[in-house]
Amino acid sequence: MSTTYPTTTDDERESAIEAAAQAVQQGLLVVLPTDTVYGVGADAFDHGAVQALLDAKGRGRDMPPPVLISSATTLDALARGLPAYVAALTEAFWPGPLTLVCNQQTSLTWDLGDTRGTVAVRMPDHEVALALLERTGPMAVSSANLSGLPAATEAGEAEGMLGESVAVVVDGGPSPQGEASTILDVRGVRPRVLRRGALGVAALDEVLEPLGVTVLDETD
User: Fold this and answer.
1) DSSP 3-state assignment of 20?
2) Do 128 and 13 meet the contact criterion of CB atoms below 8 Å apart?
């Protein structure tokens, strides 16, 4: 059974973040708030914890979780061969609702599932999530829901679906956006939309066009 921690006051927030960080370091799952929807997360480098995350959601290894980070500079440690336009995207939209699918560094020893050498990375715009990530390092985080059900936008919804599988639920109140992040594949000369989300293509193009790049969107 999980324990839910409120974050209304500074003291509550600190207690919640500390409890969640300790759980992650012990290889357990936690529910955390983000700027988009609630996530269920684990230490990205703990193979057993990542598999437990997939099991909790009812997902197979063919749907590996994204990785959340607390600083844009961490991206270079996780990804290789990044096109020049990626720096413009992270400067403009991180922290925020933009997930980047990159070629992962070959030296990484994690096992996120059948990634085919890629990693999806995001820096969330949520102070509780960022504070937790600063203590844990990169976390594998997927939307806090059972596969096939809507993503949780409140802690109670996440606990209702995943409470038996997680150790700690951090209650950060209702999700500010309630919409999943936009996912871009940035392995090519043009970024390609894999999933439309909270960040629109027009906003992305406004940043990229001065570089002579536009987004390829074939999701219709």
Assistant:
1) helix
2) yes
CA distance 63 to 115: 8
Residues 178-197: tens digit of each pLDDT:
788 999 999 999 999 999 99
d(CA 107, CA 99): 22
Q: How far apart are CA 16 and CA 171, in angstroms?
A: 8
Per the confidence metrics, is the pTM higher than 0.90?
yes
Judge whether residue 220 has pLDDT over 80.
no
- Per-residue pLDDT tens over the stretch 47-62: 999 999 999 999 999 9
Phi, psi of 119 (to 5 degrees): -145, 135
Q: Please, which residues bridge with residue 42 across strands?
A: 140
Give the HSE-up count for residue 117: Cα atoms under 13 Å, Cβ half-sphere. Answer: 5
Strand ranges for 19-127 from DSSP E: 30-32, 39-43, 67-68, 79-80, 98-104, 118-122
Please tell me whether residue 102 adopts helix, strand or coil conformation.
strand
Which class would CATH give 3-211? alpha beta
Give the start-to-end residue ranges of the domains of the chain.
3-211
How far apart CA 51 and CA 48 sit, in angstroms, is: 5
Alpha carbon distance 104, 121 (integer Å): 10
Taking CA 56 as the corner, what is the angle to CA 96 and CA 135, rounded to the nearest 5 degrees?
45
